[in-house]
Design brief:
This protein is mainly β. Helices cover 0% and strands 62% of the residues. A hairpin with a 4-residue loop joins β9 and β10.
């Protein structure tokens, strides 16, 4: 019914930049929030950045000033621009969205995850 498809992960050197994209598709009526989470081996999944429907954003302290989240509402797509990458940013990044379907049901949806590896 609803799918989130991520792209843009890969291998990058420390100090480099990368942009992640996540497109939501399916029987969507509205999207309340879209964001990015990450999970490194042995760690819990953590919030990286989120953008709410009104446009407000929130970031994890560890990425403030380096990452920028943005959203194209016409495409149901969220982006995460990551600059000044550090080895500790290495993780699987998951797209998340809180979506109201055409049937009026609101729920949380996740992408399949995309690996980011930052080499030192």
């Amino acid at each position: 019914q609803v799918q989130l498809v991520e792209s843009g992960g890969g291998l990058v050197q420390a100090g480099g930049s990368l942009r992640l994209s996540c497109a939501a598709s399916g029987r969507i009526d509205s999207i309340n929030a879209m964001g990015w989470y990450r999970q490194a081996p042995g760690n819990q999944r953590e919030l990286v950045a989120i953008v709410i429907s009104g446009g407000s954003t929130n970031y994890a302290d560890s990425v403030k000033g380096r990452f920028t989240i943005s959203r194209d509402t016409s495409k149901n797509t969220v982006y995460l621009q990551m600059n000044s990458l550090k080895p500790e940013d290495t993780a699987v990044y998951y797209c998340h969205a809180n979506i109201r379907t055409e049937w009026g049901i609101r729920g949380d949806y996740w992408g399949q995850g995309t690996q980011l590896t930052v080499s030192s």
